[in-house]
Specification:
Chains A, B: Residues 1-53 form the HTH lacI-type domain. The structure is a homodimer of 331-residue chains. With 331 residues, chain A is of the alpha/beta class. The first copy, chain A, has helices at residues 2-8, 12-20, 27-40, 46-53, 69-84, 99-109, 123-128, 157-170, 186-201, 216-227, 240-252, 286-301, and strands at 58-63, 88-93, 116-120, 138-142, 151-155, 177-180, 209-211, 234-237, 262-267, 280-283, 309-313, 316-318. At the A-B interface, helix 4, helix 5, strand 2, helix 10 and helix 11 of A face helix 4, helix 5, strand 2, helix 6 and helix 10 of B. Chain A binds a DNA duplex (30 and 30 nucleotides) through helix 2 and helix 4.
Chain lengths: 331, 331
DNA sequence: CTCCCGGATGTTTGCGTTAACATCACGCTC
DNA sequence: GAGCGTGATGTTAACGCAAACATCCGGGAG
């Protein structure tokens, strides 16, 4: 910076004013400084800037994996909105969804240059890690029920599941079977609860739950079990990938979809419109979730406190070709 | 830090020594300092640290989207290995795959606190953005052919495509049709080149290319066109999602897979084993790509220069149920 | 007993930036 | 024409930390 100042024949403070876009610099001076910057390849040192300002303009995102559609899409949206607000995103991967893994991530966190953190995981794992968040670092949580302790942003899992079940009931199915996700996922639990409640409210029987782990393979295994239940005519899968597995299992067992069995998924991943048949599913607005996360976190950082509470992003049914009235097998 | 020093009854330098793990601090003193740190919730200011050390311990990853399996898996691997080396990852999303978008990302880059950058995109887009990388910032590129200017790490696209085509030829197919990805993708172009060359080397006819855009939908449209070609018995899709679309198109047109038509994909996404039928595909080792990226970049940062050059990560065929000899339709 | 040496700890300084204050020149008013 | 205000620019200091150097202490050699 001193070099730039010297070359431009001004003081370093004037260089600073130019590079931060402060007013009160005459145009001719400004151009000289800009020229000197270019010539010397000057680039402000963000560490020094952060040191002086006391903030990093960076948000941390802590999560287990980018392998699920939901996580990667949410992170992408977060990164986009954060960039728009002048914030960068630092990824903090947790090695494994265990206490040790979380602990490791949070110890690294202490060293990190972030102004706030978005946590994408069930919050009881944080508790297990006897969460001592660095003071001054704000938090927003996704996929959790910690609405009484931290601000939470999430898809309206319950309403989404309710819509899925209602859709199947309205088509005339007696009841709806369910393939759930892993027990440690809050989203999965919420969807299962809502499925059960919706059936109960409609006075229907609640069939036993098939447990999966989000993967298509686990959906396939669940589908094999379900195909052996002759009275199973409608299934609500907790995500699209497990629905894909169901589709294959029913196909292999000669149970046509939607003729013999109707299937609804959750997420509306891009591929789901190309399943065989195209999948009826519950659309999640990951971009909106990301946006609300960043918005909430920045509001905290800027000291416009909101306190704990939950923001629910609505879902909507996307009806494609995997659902039909029961017993509508063609031919 | 001064507060901690006061509370522990030592100088701030001793606190610094403790927090950086320097030797030459007697155990009893160390414990006192540690206790004071805990009591005050002290956390070293990484901006100041970075300022003093002249490095940020952060790597930037610049890419268009996390929506493709390859990108998100690669980023995940990068983040994991970087963490292991004590580096954090900053995500730099590019709004759109246009010159403007890239330009915007690189202007933001100037402000960013990174020691090196991993670029996941075709490098000619960088050129378009008249790339003036901040001096002192190292670069590694993925999905590009810039091996003469930057170090490049990539999947061995050509060999993967060759394996796919050979597999189909060895099953007895006369030739292999191809659904390619978007023209601006280097990976896609490489796969297409290798497909063509392999056919030529085997003295086979080279059918016209169907162009897709990586999405299952585009694969579906290509599949519709291909289903109308009676002599088409084998298709190599440039990724698994387009293969999924092909599967649906052929299914809807009553062309059985693999009885009437064999299909090979590329990527080996987790879902591909649950397609109908389970997909034969080329497995990419994204984790290895990520590891090599980080390794190469850190080597540059640590001044163990390697210069430009290309690291190719091998692929392997995963044979499932979507390929068979031609005309093997059951029944 | 003195001197010296080495290990433990303290003091000083500067990393690059910007806020706050100081200065300076110019033009306007009375 | 003296005084004053305004806007442009310069000077100083501090952000938190750690490298370099300074100091202090105790113990062993002579």
């Amino acid at each position: 910076m001193a070099d730039v100042a010297r070359l431009a024949g001004v003081s370093s403070q004037t260089v600073s004013r130019v590079s931060t876009g402060h007013p009160g610099v005459v145009e001719s001076t400004r151009q000289q400084v800009l020229a000197a910057m270019r010539q010397l390849g000057y680039r402000p040192n963000s560490a020094a800037r952060a040191l002086k300002r006391g903030e990093f303009r960076t948000l941390g995102v802590i999560l287990f994996t980018l392998a699920t559609t939901g996580n990667s899409r949410t992170v992408e949206a977060i990164a986009g909105y954060a960039a728009k607000e002048g914030y960068a995103i630092t990824l903090i991967p947790v090695a494994a969804p265990t206490q040790d893994g979380v602990l490791g991530a949070f110890s690294r966190l202490g060293e990190l240059a972030v102004d706030g953190i978005i946590v994408i995981m069930e919050v009881h794992l944080l508790d297990a890690a006897n969460l001592n968040l660095p003071p001054g670092v704000q938090v927003v949580v996704v996929d959790s029920d910690a609405g009484d302790r931290y601000p939470v942003v999430d898809t309206d899992q319950a309403d989404g599941a309710r819509q899925a079940v209602r859709h199947l009931l309205e088509l005339g199915h007696e009841t709806v079977w369910h393939v759930t996700g892993p027990a440690e996922s809050f989203a999965s639990e919420r969807r299962t609860q809502a499925w059960r409640r919706t059936l109960l409210e409609a006075g229907r029987a609640v069939p036993p739950v098939q447990r999966g782990d989000w993967t298509a393979d686990s959906g396939y295994r669940a589908g094999l079990a379900l195909a052996a239940e002759p009275e199973c005519t409608a299934v609500f899968a907790a995500n699209d990938q497990m629905a894909l597995g169901l589709l294959r299992a029913f196909h292999e067992r000669g149970r046509t979809v939607p003729g013999d069995v109707s299937i609804v998924g959750f997420d509306d991943i891009p591929d789901s419109s190309s399943f065989i048949p195209p999948l009826t599913t519950v659309h999640q607005d990951f971009a909106e979730v990301g946006r609300r996360c960043v918005q909430g976190l920045l509001r905290q950082i800027r000291n416009e406190p909101e306190g704990p509470g939950t923001v629910l992003v609505p879902t909507r049914m996307v009806v494609r070709a995997s659902t039909a009235p029961p017993g509508s097998r063609r031919g």
